[in-house]
Amino acid sequence: MPYGIDARSLMQGVQVITVVGAGLVGATLAIRLSQLGINVRLLERSPFSKPNGKDGINDGRTIAVTLGSKRFLEKCGLWQNLEGTAQRINYIRVFEQGSAWTLDYDYQELGNEPMGYIIEFDRLIEAVYEGVKTADNIEIIPNCELVQISEGEVTSKTHGIFKSQLVVGADGRNSWVRSQVNIKSSTKEYGHKALVAHFVHEKPHNATAWEVFMPSGPFAMLPMINTTDGKHQSGIVWCGSKDTDWETIPDNELEQKLIEIFPFYGNVKLCSKRWIFPLSALTVDTITAPRTILVGDAAHALHPIAGQGVNLGWRDVAELADLLEYAQNTGQDYGANFLLERYRKKRHIDQQGLYFFTDGLTRLCGIDSSMVSFIRQTGLGVVNKIPPLKRFFMKKAMGI
Length: 400
Description:
alpha+beta, globular
């Protein structure tokens, strides 16, 4: 059943945005546009239902939400449902394994707000689900199988033709929308995979996120809120060769390996399932087509080394919402070419710049050379000692 407005009762003559994909990015866009009084049709190929909850986690990723993204989610009215499960990041420490040189970020260098937050993926999904369900100007059509797009017209197998001024592709890396409008994409396989899991540990994390560069790949230890019985808890994102035996290694051996590379929290114990993801990046030749715009992973996908993936998607959404608000206030066509071109230009530098930064950093950290290692360590130490440069990188990490 549709939520918000009935599928058959959209006002005649009123412009409509069709968003394909009800994930973190597409659903958040729908919520923000709804707040602006813009009618949104949200099409989802899967059932649109509430996640299972803590005891039945579907996706164990811990999402680093930057301060900029937190402010945007607050504007969307979603943060009040997230704050209780969000762990502040007050400090970030970056170093190369075996090196005494570190790059240390302290939130107090820029003010009183944290650098970001760590939230479980399923908690975010639950919040956007509730936000969509209670919105006034959204119709959501789940289990919607689409077959064709033609300049604002989306044809479905079971619901006929949906007409709108603008179609937004928010349907992920394997975007159907992207393929339908003939936007070319390029995928870069890193030959690595990432292990995601949650651990409890002896010592407190003190709201600190760690990034450790190792020869096998980057490793992140991300602070989480304490378990229900009060134990200190963190999530890991451990990148390594695609041949690493994370699927089969016994829990006690995995725990011991973790202690060996990260001894700072004392004894650790696995307290979740293991989730393993192949690592790749994706770029596209353009993010617009006639009456079509791509956002989120449909437009770009990054290596997780900087924890910026969904944050970049939310910046897409924030920019698009601002442009559509302008179009609404000035009586413009939501799918006008000049608006699409303005969106493309505004998002190009951020999207391309972050891709090249994460890809370059991944390649640099993968070079097993004593000279390159010295350069990496020196670079971290230099940035740490130059306050203006350090604050610049802090603001980039915070999305502000």
